[in-house]
Queue: 4 jobs
Job 1
Amino acid sequence: MKIHKSIVIALILSVFLSCSNIFAADEYSLEDLYRIALERSEKIKISEEDLYISERGRDKAASALLPKLSAFGSYTKYTEDKRSSTGAIIQPDGSISWGLRLDQSFYLNGREITAFKISKEYIEKSRYDLHAVKEVYIFSVASAYYDVLRAKKAVEIAKANFDRLTKHRDAAAIRLKVGEVTKTDLLRAEAELSGAHAELVKAENNLKLTRAVLARVVGISGDYDVKETAGIREDAADNLDSLKQRAFAERAEMKAMELQKRIAEEQVGYSKGAYWPTLSVEGVYARREDNPSVVTVNKESIYGGIKLNFPFFEGGLRRAEVAEAEAKKRQSELIYDDLKKTIGIEVENAYLDFQTQKGVLKSFDDQVTFASDNYNSVSKQYQFGLANSIDVIDANTLLLTAERQLTDARYNYQLSVLRLQRATGALLRTIASQQSVENRSREDKGRTN
């Protein structure tokens, strides 16, 4: 009786330990990976720092619109004090002077205001750049996620193929013993089984690699697994022209480039502003104290001044700056046109890929059904001597190929939906909308419970 109890306890402990190992590994959905990636991505943090730098650039531009307040002071020590023939002090032994100065300088055409406006547009452009970086990164996370799912399915297919060929090898061995087939059938079955084992090893190693790549992209560590989420909802089927127009209007890259064009135009005006004179206004409070005191020296004064500076020749600097700004303006227009063409091709490629994957998915699904029925029929026929080993191997190869094609088509279809959303600039907005719906659903369930 004690032996039975110890066995039961050992079984319970082994089950508990195995379950604890299972539960130790974290399992992530695609939405979980999105959230973690947005929090931990170095690329996104770099782009966020670019936005912060742009905001500080606005502060620098605003400082030019405000007057500068400064304090000054000096101490002068003379070798000796000097006096006139009447005894009046001409040069004191020491002198201290100090005061406050208020200065404001600006171009008459409002060049500083133009610089402040440009700095605000740079902030908006940095926000669009950050949005674009997030979309590119999110799509790379989705690609790595579906690579892992594809690799997991490849391992399942390879295991199933290995099991089928093992059964076929065993059946060939039995038929060889009773003299129904030659040894060639068994050798062929053994060779196919060895190849299936090699494919299984490659599939398992590829799964490890894809998991490592996903962990690097997202920023997770330790043992983990991914769970397949529900199928991605595709948008309403728009025609290609409407998708392109949507991309031109919604893509963050296009919006950022439009701002860059506007900034380049304003930079030309900013550079031409250097031809205008500068007006400087100053107000000063100054005080001086001598030791010994000099009666004839004004000890305290308050004064203001206005200066107008108009440089006529500076070696061609202003002309070169204007020419440079105009070249950058032309360059930004060319970049904008090139980007628009590139996005148009990207949308067309994503749209055609989406239509292709959507069209072939049903065909590959039917192909797997037919290939599976065909393999079952041929394998039974082989057991009763109505088919040979080559028939079984051909049927298995057909089934293996169909299963792999269906797996690729299924995940390529899911990825093509995301690629089309990315090409039209709707990916990040769609993900945010889905997550907000899910959060509201969880909150409603929490209130109900």
Job 2
Amino acid sequence: MRLAVRRLLTRLPGGGPVLVACSGGADSLALAAATAFVAPRLGRPAGLVTVDHGLQPGSAERAEAVAGWARAAGLDPVEALTVRVDGRPGGPEAAAREARYEALVTAARRYDAAGVLLGHTRDDQAETVLLALARGAGPRGLSGMPERRDLDGVPLLRPLLDVPRADTRAACAALGLDPWADPHNADPAYARARVRAEALPALVDALGPGVVANLARTAGLLAADNAALDALAAAALADVRTEGSGLSVAGLAGLPAAVRTRVLHAWARELGATPAALSHSHVAALDALVTAWHGQGPVHLPGGLQIRRRADHLQP
């Protein structure tokens, strides 16, 4: 655990503090303990933020207990933040995640943090890949969670993506820590909980224990491929632009399909299509304006956008 944290922190530029996002579960608690040990030895300030979603009895007391442990462990600053989940779009998981990340980003900005450390493990990555497969996701979805993602200018960092979940439990046991077991993680109403309790263990039984590491490794390989394709698509988008925010059909038609669909996806987002609602079917309809044109009408995109083909141009 400490080595994983050290590897990430030694690559992190600047001297600002890092904040550990800690729910009190084994993964984030072990991460916080490792960070409390490693960061001072690297001359890096380290604090902790715990978020109370208010969704379970005793959640406020649990958040204060995590904050109290963090202060005793030498982490500073330490905050226990309360967020409101009700009224947000999407299901309860998505709403809680959105509220949590908003709170983490706000705290990071308040302390000018160099990044927020998240406790996702190799097992979480494998579960993410399986869920993406079940949704029929493309390479972007199958690339799983990145080690670093910038959210509103704040780096979200995952040092444990190569660490098995069993190691976080072992670390807590070795340090005498008593992690909290979130009942949502075992609730079969949630797809991830079913994958964790049933699907992934069934794969391990059928294919051997290496399947978890192999799924996580696949995510890493696909992430590298996606980065290369995204760079090609960014250059191609610049090449096929026309006047009036349009794109050249001839230029698009000459691109490989994997690059062309990325260009169309990026262009749609640039025009204002709602990212969360922009699906494969929308991009496929845009692609058909290029590759299967037979005079069809406009493509309707999330956010009230319409894209038409006029002669040899796509136009919003």
Job 3
Amino acid sequence: MDTDRSASPGARLAWLDLLRGIAAMVVALHHATYYYTPRWRAGLVDWFDPGLYGVLVFFLVSGYIIPASLERHGQVRRFWISRVLRIYPLLTTACAITLLPYLLGVRGLRAGLEAYRPATAVLAHLTMLQDVLAVPNVINVLWTLSYEMLFYLLVVALFVTRTHRLSAPIAVTLATAAVLVGGLLPMAALSRTVGIGPVVALTAVVMVTAIVAAVSARPSVRVAGGVLGGVLALALVCVNGRIGPWQSLIILAVMFTGTALYRAEHRQIRRRTAVLSAAVVPACAVLAGAWHAQVSMPPAQADAFAVYWAGSLLLAAVTFAAGWAVRRRRIPRWLTGLGAISFSLYLLHPVLLMLSDQFGGTPDHDDAFRLAVFVAVLIAVSALTYRYVEVPFQRLGRRIGRRAAPAARRPADGVAAAPLAAPAADNVSP
């Protein structure tokens, strides 16, 4: 769901910043138009869901670059240090601002989150897996971060077991499973059977154990930790998600498709293999959406869902392809700048909308002026949080990672990094 901008300009992949900036602004406008221009928005969403489109672009970008970030160093330890210090500082800041009105007694939490035990809600959000733990997201967009974390666990599992170049067949397998069995798998089954609190606690223990073991210097412990994390991720996706398991499987398939395209571009796999997966995954995604919607929704709603699901998915694929096509061209600085602050744009826009609603109310008619003011304020605030929250912790993460590198650089820490045709930035997509 935001490249490490404090890295040197030569280490930038500007076209990915372009895509992140577009995706973040589309998602922000998607939610802002609910408040400020609802009538204008109503005519757009018949065939296209801007929020879904934006997050699918993010997932493709994340799939493209996150495994490269791990393999560039060949160090699981450094990867996790980077992820924690890249995500949690801004995530904690956004959550704290969101919780403040509730703590002051001004308003409740979204989706009835206040009904959950505080320890359970906090622990679920600390794992970033709350969306597959049957715990409502304190900020609506945080659901995508759960899938980012699931992807991290799977990527590490593949890396330590030396199967990380199987991205294309993995993407196809996940997409095919979404069609064939995605509609048969249960939703939130573990939480309903065992209880939300125990599942959250057990998940936290297993996740921490998996990560600690995966950075071990002992090969057997490292592999066991990686596999444990991967099994946890698949179990939560298949039987405990908030959304339909077929959708969860498609999301992961989309991310691994991005990885396959990266590997083909850098000659780690054959191009025709990546092209095949890039064709099969969208086809399965469209088929799964149409099929499973017909089973689980009334006919009119199912038809509408199938149209905007397919439209959003295919437009996201076209957007990614267009970004890749201009990857060697100079991208305007203001567009890459939006990409740099995209994580702040993504996390903070619901917070600003909450504050706008609290203090200014919701207009009873389309108000383009207030929408424009909101966008300007969002960009300004995001630039500030990027500079004073994100960048310092990015730098701290690199310093800590470099100190951990001497011990982690030995082959015992993982697999030798594959040579890259272009430097990869440490990115995360919301």
Job 4
Amino acid sequence: MKTTKSLLQVFQSRKMIALLLLGFSSGMPLFLTSRTLQAWMTVEKVDLASIGLLSLVSLPYSIKFLWAPFLDRYVPPFLGRRRGWLVVTQIGLTIAIAIMSLQQPKQALQLFAINAVIIAFLSASQDIAFDAYRTDILTEWETGAGAAIGVLGYRIALLVTGSLALILADRISWQGVYLFLAGLMAINIIFSIWSPEPILPEQPPTNLAQAITLPFQEFFQRLGITKGFLVLVFIVLYRLGDSLVNNMVTPFLLQIGFTQTDIGAIQGGMGLIATLVGALLGGVVLSRLGINRSLWIFGILQAFSNLVYFLLAQLGQNYQFMVLAINIENLCSGLATSAFVAFLMSLCNQRFSATQFALLSSLMAFSRDILVAPAGIFAKEIGWTGFFLFTLLAAVPGLILLPWFAPWKPEEA
């Protein structure tokens, strides 16, 4: 009873409200250069292979560790080390998304892609600041809840930009949708100004050279070369199967006969409930079982959730099963993401949290955005049924690595 009361107090704190709002802001731009962008391109009759390859515009998410040291070293002249960078990136995103509303993907695909790269760069920079903020402001006891709440805000944003955007696109132009989302992005600036600034126990790096070199040295000295390398490989592979599905699920649903409104309404309705349950349940399980066991349980659930799309590919335009598939995807993805984010946070030293988390999440983004680039080609060659079976196999290597550094055991080390 006492533990339950303590958990409730943690979830109700001002920190958690701030993480929910900032998580929403961090998640908003992602689909604007991936799933939502793919829907726009699909409606405009852009070639399927080009749609799959356009995931390469998200390269900044995979290399953001290259400029993360700047955010550790330098402090904007307002709002502090973390919130200041959040506001800077959010202003840039508002402008870049508004400019995207002027684009024509069919007529000028190259210019369209360049604009998407700019959004991805600013979004990756906002992620650096948010991830560092979340790592710095949470105590060890709050890590599980904080990871879950941040994921919850992030997932709500994905549903807004993935579901509400699709519903709106059946009523107004895609250009109008992106202009609306630019206005929504601007509101996030208020969230950053309101949020409390973390107080660090140690001084940040005193020069740029330290900000670049010390985070990497400290990481491998603490974990060791072998374990550190295995951790990095695991980060790339853990969510690969899920990332392959997410990269092509919107074109898949559109091609088998569902409308943008069908997809948007289900994802934004029942899908939102599944996301809320998944993220909050993930936080509770993390707090009780620890990170290791959560990685095992949620990773296995995440892998087998891909089978629902395998079955849907055989059933075709079946509305009831589409509802089931989308709900299972949102639930399992929310669970796995909560555990994964908590795991990444546990690997960071607060003094270098921007750079270290950026390095780790860049590897996750490398899997999500770069390794999945040929997904459209695979789907075209082997069909949707074969593709979704392939995604299940792609999830296995990450699970095989778990015993090396996250063994199933009663207590965390």
